[in-house]
Amino acid sequence: NDTNQFLLEYDVNYDEHWKFKSELNYPVMIKNDKYMDSTAFNLIKSKLQDTEKKIKREIFSTIDIQSFALFNFIQNIMFNTETCWPKSVFLILDISDNMLSCGPVWDFDWSLEHTMENLDNNIIQTPYSKFLQNNEDFIRFSQEYCYSISENDIVNHINETTQAIEKSAILDYSIYPGTHQHNIFYNDESFA
């Protein structure tokens, strides 16, 4: 509801009304139709272009590095290759202070069907990660996230979540039988 914060989506589908290509050629779409007009659109575009010019020079004063480290961490744990396209990458741009934050995370259906085999160095690139990868704060936050959980934590969480949503998934599939059904009902600890 804050008219200073705008939800942006980076997505190759490029199918929203308010859209533009960023300085770094990302397909940017603005999701806040209710607050959009040409003045707001031009302001958002200008502020994001300025932020990306700084990012290219490795000046990160207008991005929330911690949110980008967490986003990158989550995408890599989930093997979500969509962020490389990019697709379904959401960010929030606050035009009052020109701060760009990553998230919310969304859309992991491709990660359920793909492996890390075809990725360079088994690392999923997320927006701006190639610029951030040598930044001390980005490295520190990334390491903190890595050391904060164990493989058993991930496996246990996956199994608990699978059990929690099993009834809902079965019901959804019974209502929408023409949709693709993922086989999520297994307890395979080699999954993680």
Query: Mean of the pLDDT scores?
Result: 84
Secondary-structure element order, as H and E?
EEEHHEEHHH
- Helical content band: 25-40%
Please tally the β strands and state the result: 5
**Secondary structure category:** alpha+beta
Strand order of the largest sheet: 2-3-1-4-5
Report how far apart the termini are: 37 Å
- Count of helical regions: 5
In one word, what is the shape?
A: globular
Task: Please summarize the sheet with the most strands.
Answer: 5 strands, antiparallel
Which regions contain 5 or more consecutive residues with pLDDT less than 50?
184-192
Strand-residue proportion: 5-15%
Global Rg? 18 Å
Describe this structure in words.
- The chain is of the alpha+beta class.
- It is built from 5 helices and 5 strands.
- A hairpin with a 4-residue loop joins β4 and β5.
- The radius of gyration is 18 Å and the shape is globular.
Short summary:
39% of the residues lie in helices and 12% in strands. It is α+β, with helices and mostly antiparallel strands.
Helix and strand arrangement:
Layout: E1 5-10, E2 19-21, E3 27-30, H1 38-56, H2 65-77, E4 89-94, E5 99-102, H3 129-132, H4 136-148, H5 151-175
Antiparallel strand pairs: 1-3, 1-4, 2-3, 4-5
